[in-house]
Amino acid sequence: MASYSHKNPVLDTYQAIVSTYSEFLTVAIHTILYERNIYPRTSFLSARKYNYPVRQNRHPKVCKWIQDAVLAVEVEMLKGTVSQTSLIIISSTAIPLERFVFSTTSFPIVPTTELLTPFETAIPPLDSISVDQSHTIPPCVPIVDLEEQFRAIFSRLSTCTQSLGLLPPDCSFTVAIELKEKVDPPIGHPQPWIAAEPGLQPEDKRVEDGLTEGSDREKAERRKGGKGKDFGKARTVPVRSVEAGEFILEMWIEEGRGKDEYIEQAGVEDTSQ
């Protein structure tokens, strides 16, 4: 049985939070690929992480791709520019079918110069501290229930994916990040990120709220071919939230608007419950 590396996280800095998130994201991606049968189940090893049985793909190229993708996410997370990360499952004809969303919008906002600076520790009022304790700053305590919450996510993932039904054969996947508002997209060489298709990008709130100019027909056309058309207002399955100190994460699953039609055309039996 394989085993992921194990560390007891002490979430006292933003760097520690991002590192813990990256480690969790790696395990989650392997788990989702296993649960959704993106690769044959025989290509996965049994492993343990967070004192919980998980799966890890054993193909070196798959592991390297996931490792590189998570590293690219981590680089942007340390810049404080990411609001959410998504694992998107795509059909053989490039139809987005499902999106597994990891929202980090509630992560603390920390300047890049303060990544290793410990968070302020809550100190009780001076009048409640004894003389012997008055010069002692309470130590940073490890987040003891974080692994328990991660275990709950993996358990919930197994249950949720059963309700999604079977996927057609030959599906692929990709990882995407959604940037915060008024943030410049990552550029550089080599370039790890490319702009997502408009249908995968966030919906134009002004169009949805009817705040743009033009006739109803024009607005309908914008909705039809514009941003968010693949997942906007699609069926959403909540997974779980995690809250441990400054580490606050929400996860959910979105089914693409065109999934049911594509599944029907592909002749895949619906086994969702």
What can be said about this structure in brief?
The chain is an alpha+beta fold. Helices cover 30% and strands 21% of the residues.
How many H/I helices? 6
- Uncertain stretches of 5 or more adjacent residues: 122-126, 131-139, 205-213
**How many extended strands?**
8
Strand order, sheet with most strands: 6-4-5-8-7
Gross morphology is globular
Q: What share of residues is helical?
A: 25-40%
Q: What is the C-alpha radius of gyration, as a whole number of Å?
A: 21 Å
Strand content: 15-25%
SSE order, as H and E? Answer: EHEEHEEHEHHEEH
Secondary structure category: alpha+beta
Report the mean per-residue pLDDT as an integer: 80
Biggest β-sheet, characterized?
Answer: 5 strands, antiparallel
User: Termini, distance in Å?
Assistant: 32 Å
Explain what the structure shows.
The chain contains six helices and eight strands. It is an alpha+beta fold. The protein has a five-stranded antiparallel β-sheet with strand order 6-4-5-8-7. The chain has a three-stranded mixed β-sheet with strand order 1-2-3. It starts with a strand and ends in a 7-residue tail after the last helix. The relative contact order is 0.18. Residues 122-126, 131-139 and 205-213 have low confidence and may be disordered.
Give the SSE layout.
Layout: E1 2-3, H1 14-35, E2 44-49, E3 52-57, H2 60-79, E4 82-90, E5 96-103, H3 146-163, E6 172-179, H4 205-208, H5 216-225, E7 236-244, E8 247-255, H6 259-266
Parallel strand pairs: 1-2
Antiparallel strand pairs: 2-3, 4-5, 4-6, 5-8, 7-8
